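quick q for whoever's on today - can somebody do inverse folding on this one?? i tried earlier but teh output was garbage lol. tokens:
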């Protein structure tokens, strides 16, 4: 064998510590959930580096310190890695279970290492704890991979699959091999391959974790780019994308799509009375009032200063008009309390409906906008519809 176990362990300690530094360097300047998970993962790698360092210095450490300290570092790192991954994915952390698994593994290793020395049983006990941690990580990855396809998730699943296979292989070799090994530092092909492959796992898992972190961060940035920062509803970009998608779904399922365009009446007077901060509070309260009327499948977005759009899948002209009237009446009947003052707000609503084969989101928005201005010209605080004749014909055509 070209390397001793201690030499391999030292190499693993150095590369694991380097990976810890690299991950920690990527956490500067933010304390969000995603980056907190990266900090925990980098700290886990640092702890794991201490574990490898303990094994590398085995010739200079008492047996009890090597046994208890080295395994404590490794099991602690395993638990921290599980928590970090589950935090990154937004899953339940299972902190108590992770702690119990780590304590379970450490006590078993201590018992079969010091009280009733048995190297094979000690490895099996520790492998059970590591295996449970692997299952907790895989559970979190599968739970989100079913909903969101991700190459980074599949890469991590592959890493955990190889780690599980390595554990199984090592125990088979120890229990069914031709000779019994006294410790991990004993010269043997089994120990050599296990230490070498185990030392590569932090590198592969760290890279996979970093890729997954980058994917999730990009998803969050993409979501933030489509959210109105004041009201928390979709912005114009998100509404345009949602309209195109809903039109395609409506055509596929032969269902209409209703659109409401709302504008707060005389909103300039609100800003003049309460200032722009008060006007912002009015818009937020207006959104809350509208949301109480909408279905879960409906989508509301802000497309201008005080202009909002509601998309209502499956709503024909009659249903969209009923929804628009409910929104208008609810807003009118719901007084808003702004800085201790009561304010009654009204909205004008324009309604348009897409035909079964209509995929032109721009035309749908333009018709809703024309209907909105018709409502304003007619005196405000009212609902108007604008459906072109061609679209009326589409809506009345029988299904094929």
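ok took a stab at it. sequence:
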């Amino acid at each position: 064998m070209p390397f001793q176990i201690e030499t391999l362990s030292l190499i693993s300690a150095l590369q694991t510590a380097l990976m810890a530094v690299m991950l920690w360097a990527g956490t500067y300047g933010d304390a969000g959930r995603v980056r907190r998970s990266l900090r925990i993962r980098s700290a886990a790698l640092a702890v794991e580096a201490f574990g490898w360092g303990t094994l590398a210095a085995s010739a200079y450490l008492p047996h009890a310190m090597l046994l208890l300290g080295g395994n404590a570092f490794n099991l602690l790192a395993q638990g921290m890695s599980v928590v970090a991954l589950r935090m990154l994915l937004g899953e339940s952390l299972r902190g108590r279970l992770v702690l119990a698994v780590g304590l379970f593994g450490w006590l078993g290793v201590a018992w079969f290492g010091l009280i009733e020395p048995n190297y094979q049983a000690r490895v099996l006990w520790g492998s059970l704890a590591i295996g449970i941690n692997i299952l907790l990580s895989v559970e979190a990855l599968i739970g989100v991979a079913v909903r969101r396809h991700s190459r980074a998730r599949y890469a991590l699943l592959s890493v955990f699959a190889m780690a599980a296979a390595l554990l199984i292989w090592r125990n088979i070799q120890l229990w069914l091999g031709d000779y019994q090994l006294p410790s991990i530092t004993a010269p043997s092909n089994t120990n050599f391959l296990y230490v070498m492959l185990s030392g590569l796992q932090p590198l592969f898992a760290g890279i996979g974790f970093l890729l997954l972190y980058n994917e999730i961060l990009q998803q969050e940035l993409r979501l933030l780019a489509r959210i109105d920062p004041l009201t928390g509803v979709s912005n114009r970009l998100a509404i345009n994308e949602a309209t195109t998608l809903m039109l395609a779904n409506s055509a596929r399922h032969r269902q209409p799509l209703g659109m409401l365009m709302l504008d707060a009446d005389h909103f300039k007077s609100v800003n003049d009375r309460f200032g722009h901060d008060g006007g912002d509070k009015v818009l937020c309260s207006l959104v809350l009032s509208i949301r109480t009327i909408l279905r879960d499948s409906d989508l509301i977005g802000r497309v201008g200063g005080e202009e909002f759009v509601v998309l209502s899948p499956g709503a024909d002209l009659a249903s969209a008009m009923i929804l628009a009237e409910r929104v208008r009446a609810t807003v009118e009947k719901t007084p808003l309390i702004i800085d201790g003052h009561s304010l009654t707000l009204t909205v004008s609503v324009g309604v348009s409906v897409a035909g079964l084969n209509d995929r032109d989101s721009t035309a749908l928005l333009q018709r809703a906008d024309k209907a909105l201005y018709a409502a304003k010209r007619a005196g405000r605080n009212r609902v108007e519809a604008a459906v072109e004749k061609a679209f009326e014909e589409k809506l009345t055509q029988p299904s094929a």
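fwiw The longest helix spans residues 189-224. also The beta strands are 257-264, 299-302, 307-313, 336-338, 341-343, 347-354, 383-385. so keep that in mind when u check it
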